[in-house]
Specification:
With 411 residues, the chain is mainly α. Helices cover 78% and strands 1% of the residues. It has two domains: 191 residues, Growth Hormone, Chain: A (Up-down Bundle); 204 residues, MFS general substrate transporter like domains (Growth Hormone, Chain: A), CATH 1.20.1250. The chain contains 15 helices and two strands. α1 packs antiparallel against α6 and α5 runs antiparallel to α10.
Length: 411
């Protein structure tokens, strides 16, 4: 009889979906809230929002370390969700206080929630490692569903009921997230209860083992970050955005990657399931390398078609769509599989898995620096540089793949 995913996976997916919906709806509207409702200048609002988002990526280091030493991953997840709930409530019900009063609690809450839930996910597959990659893909699907729902719900509620309602909704979603996490059954918590609270190996040793993968991930994130930056500028200025007689707004294009991921996830899962039945499923590292190749291909397409751009000729939307589809395919393979890989390296360590969020932050920061070069270079050169960097990540991945200890598919 073939193994099946633990029921707790779907509980964690729902917990994550609710949390991401709350987090993204606030993040998407935060600068508008700070300028319109709190009267901050654009520069002050941008600085505060940037600092807040940066904190949500770095606080998991502290939360992960405290989780390993003093808390179970389940307790950390719930404690973090409660802190976030409280933070959103402070912003909603105490408008005279500094925005940091609530946002600081949310950032601290993320520090416990993120490593707590990712480590809980890793522990579910200690007995069925062959299902780990697929489990992480399903979990990542819930992240993207939440990311797609958040801005839609937030903008609708704000338009109907005003700014406080946005944070009331976020608090309500976090309350549902906490309540949902209670649904774990005793049998599904068995492995967690038997796991020691301390690390079997030192955090530094685990970080050393994870560093090559994190380096690959940082390079990848620096080029993927262009999908929400330079790629949108390219679409605005150099792409013929006419589709079926309608002009596609740049704001709509910004949502395309998440839509592609939602569409592609069941298709990729079906292909991987068929390969698994034929005992031909690629290793985790092989899937990451395939995702990096898809990313390289996306930028090659962009660089090649950019050669056609003239004052009277723009890039056909079909080619732009192909590049977006390739970028989204790469995201679908790289991000959840990198989470899976770190779950293999340190299934009992929230501290080690927290470094994935730090790597994301560093990657986005480097991506911002890279994106600042867009207007100073031709599109052909800029997309070629992005493709070259993704190619460097492929080489690093191949070099590490030569060491099959972590890149082998568990049996």
């Amino acid at each position: 009889m073939s193994a099946t995913h633990p029921r707790a996976l779907f509980v964690l997916c729902l917990v994550e979906l609710l949390e991401r919906t709350a987090g993204v709806l606030v993040a998407a509207l935060l600068i508008l809230f700070l300028t319109e409702a709190r009267g901050l200048s654009t520069s002050d609002a941008t600085a505060l929002a940037g600092s807040f988002l940066a904190l949500t990526y770095f606080t998991p280091l502290i939360g992960g370390l405290l989780t390993d030493r003093y808390l179970s991953t389940r307790a950390a997840m719930q404690f973090g969700a409660l802190l976030s709930l409280g933070g959103y409530a402070v912003v909603a019900f105490f408008p005279s206080t500094s925005p940091w009063s609530g946002l600081g609690l949310v950032a601290l809450g993320q520090g416990f929630f993120r490593p707590g839930i990712t480590s809980s996910l890793a522990r579910l597959y200690l007995q069925t490692p062959e299902l780990r990659d697929h489990g992480y893909s399903l979990f990542y699907l819930s992240v993207n569903i939440g990311g797609a729902l958040g801005p839609l719900l937030g903008s609708g509620v704000k338009r109907l009921f005003g700014w406080p309602s946005v944070f009331v909704l976020a608090s309500s979603l976090m309350a549902l997230s906490v309540g949902t996490s209670v649904w774990f059954r005793e049998s599904e918590r068995k492995e967690e209860r038997s796991a020691p609270t301390g690390n079997a190996s030192s955090p530094l040793a685990e970080l050393k083992a994870a560093l090559p993968y994190l380096t690959v991930f940082i390079i990848y994130m620096s080029v993927y970050a262009q999908s929400s930056g330079a790629l949108l500028l390219f679409a605005r200025d150099q792409v013929q955005r006419s589709l079926l007689g309608h002009t596609v707004a740049v704001e709509t294009i910004a949502a395309f990657p998440s839509v592609f991921v939602l569409i592609a996830t069941p298709l990729v899962s079906a292909v991987v399931h068929r390969l698994r039945k034929q005992e031909r499923e690629p290793a985790t590292g092989g899937k990451i390398i395939a995702g990096l190749f898809a990313t390289v291909s996306a930028f090659v397409v962009l660089s090649v078609v950019s050669r056609q751009v003239r004052a009277d000729h723009k890039v056909a939307f079909i080619w732009f769509g192909v590049s977006l589809a390739l970028l989204s395919t790469g995201e679908l393979l790289v991000v959840p599989m990198m989470q899976s890989l770190l779950g293999q390296l340190a299934p009992r360590s929230a501290f080690t898995t927290a470094f994935l969020f730090v790597a994301m932050s560093i990657g986005y920061t480097l991506g911002g620096w890279l994106g600042s070069m867009y207007e100073r270079q031709s599109a052909v050169v800029f997309w070629g540089v992005c493709g070259g960097l993704a190619g460097v990540a492929v080489v690093f991945g191949y070099l590490k793949a030569g060491q099959p200890d972590q890149f082998a598919t568990p049996k």
